[in-house]
Specification:
Helices cover 29% and strands 26% of the residues. The chain has 5 helices and 9 strands; from the N terminus they run H-E-E-H-H-E-H-E-E-E-E-H-E-E. A 7-stranded mixed beta sheet has the order 5-6-4-3-7-8-9, with helices on both faces. A two-stranded antiparallel sheet has the order 1-2. The longest helix has 19 residues, at 69-87.
Length: 221
């Protein structure tokens, strides 16, 4: 039998001219490494403004993550990896619920990553048609969130997203609306957390934050 040549490889070896096989899923270590690198890149891009909007507040500005196309793409990839890492490949959401208003910035794009629908939770009076309502406390009084009644079907897996978790009141209201409609609340994903406010203590489903939390500001004499 003739020896194999570069144009005629032996039968027990793959032909380099054949179409490549489907890419295997990344290992957990590869995923962890990629997610760590993305988080570092995103965190370096945040801007901080002291004493805004009032004295003693350190404002975290996430807008640079959307102003640059590559950072925006990195954010969505990091959120995608965070979801699959925390909830598993087979527990991805059917619906992503975004909180008014910054949850709208990335919620729809994240939903597309999982082939899921996006449903907004808005301030009272902003949504047409039949709605469900939930109240939550803010620093200056009570406020209300609403969701359209046909936004979530019973049994659908739902992920709630927002930019920052502070006191947790608005996120808790959104979670209660998901349950009112019969959705299965997977959990919550936030870009940042003000850890010292302990907002996650108000939430009755898993809470995950993408970037490191902000420490409690030093008290002024």
């Amino acid at each position: 039998m003739a020896e194999s040549t570069s144009s005629h490889p032996p039968r027990n070896r793959p032909d380099a001219t054949e179409a490549p096989q489907k890419r295997l899923p990344a290992s957990s270590s590869e995923t962890s490494s990629e997610l760590t690198e993305l988080k570092m890149r995103l965190h370096r891009s945040l801007r901080q403004y002291p004493d805004f909007p009032s004295p003693g507040i350190l404002f975290e500005d996430i807008m640079p993550l959307f102003a640059d196309a590559l950072l925006h793409k990195s954010l969505l990839r990091a959120l995608e990896l965070q979801v699959t890492t925390c909830f598993g490949q087979h527990q991805t959401p059917d619906i992503v619920v975004g909180l008014d208003a910054r949850g709208f910035l990335f919620g729809p794009s994240l939903a597309l990553k999982f082939g899921a629908g996006f449903v907004p939770v808005r301030k009272q009076g902003k949504l047409p048609g039949p709605t469900e309502t939930a109240a939550f406390e803010k620093e200056y009084g009570q406020d209300f969130f609403q969701i359209q009644r046909d936004g979530i079907k019973p049994g659908q897996r739902v992920l709630v997203v927002d930019d920052i978790i502070a006191t947790g009141g608005s996120a808790a209201a959104a979670g209660s609306l998901v349950k009112k409609l019969g959705g299965s609340l997977l959990g919550y994903i936030f870009i940042l957390e003000l850890d010292f406010l302990k907002g996650r203590d108000k939430l009755d489903a898993p809470v995950h934050t993408l970037l490191s939390s902000q420490e409690k500001p030093d008290s002024k004499p």
